[in-house]
Specification:
The protein has four helices and eight strands; from the N terminus they run E-E-H-H-E-E-E-H-E-H-E-E. It is α+β, with helices and mostly antiparallel strands. A hairpin with a 6-residue loop joins strand 4 and strand 5. Bound molecules: coenzyme A.
């Protein structure tokens, strides 16, 4: 499975072979919240988890999304999504998010984002997410987390 994007980027399934590259990327884009190596490894080994990467024309992994289907049939969660800073603002984050939503294939999609993460909140808001809950002190450093949800158009499932 290989979804081609513009400028030679592609979305592909991410596997345990990508663990090191994903770990490196997570540490760059989430200096405060990067998943520990073992937690990331578990994401690759757990059933009902969707892992996708963006590969640059030179083969480097420059983006990653992980989504969990969970037990409820009507809902999926975006667990983590990120694009290498050197490749941001080219539409890759939006493309990866849309790809994950399609793979999740459920009517509701949720995620949690730091209240101060304006770039991500802007991306989510413009693609149909609204804030449904504020979790005060959700993050380790005390920052509030916003739970955002998108109702998928049935035609998109
Ligand atoms: C959020 C993130 C995934 C966006 O990826 P991206 O590839 O740069 O985003 P896109 O190019 O697809 O941008 C789509 C839209 O999102 C919004 N957006 C993205 N980055 C933005 C920024 N730095 N400032 C303001 N708006 C931004 C804009 O509306 C943008 O559309 P535009 O470029 O036409 O204005 C990326 O900034 C990232 O990896 N951030 C660090 C990790 C993170 O915060 N992940 C989300 C955790 S919940």
């Amino acid at each position: 499975m290989n979804t081609l994007l513009k400028d030679g980027y592609a979305i592909r399934r991410a596997t345990l072979f990508d663990l090191r590259a994903v770990y490196r990327l997570e540490r760059v884009i989430f200096p405060r919240d990067a998943y520990p190596y073992l937690d990331l490894a578990l994401l690759f080994l757990t059933p009902r988890v969707i892992n996708r990467k963006i590969v640059a024309p030179d083969g480097a992994l420059v983006g990653f999304v992980c989504a969990v289907l969970g037990a409820r049939q009507d809902r999926g969660w975006i667990v983590t999504i990120g694009i290498d800073p050197a490749h941001q603002r080219r539409g890759l984050g939006q493309a990866l998010l849309a790809h994950a939503e399609e793979r999740i294939g459920r009517t509701h999609i949720r995620l949690t984002v730091r209240e101060g993460n304006h770039p991500a909140i802007r991306l989510y808001a413009r693609t149909g997410y609204t804030t449904i809950e504020r979790k005060i002190g959700y993050y380790r450093d005390g920052e509030t987390g916003l739970v955002m949800e998108k109702h998928m158009n049935p035609a998109q499932n």
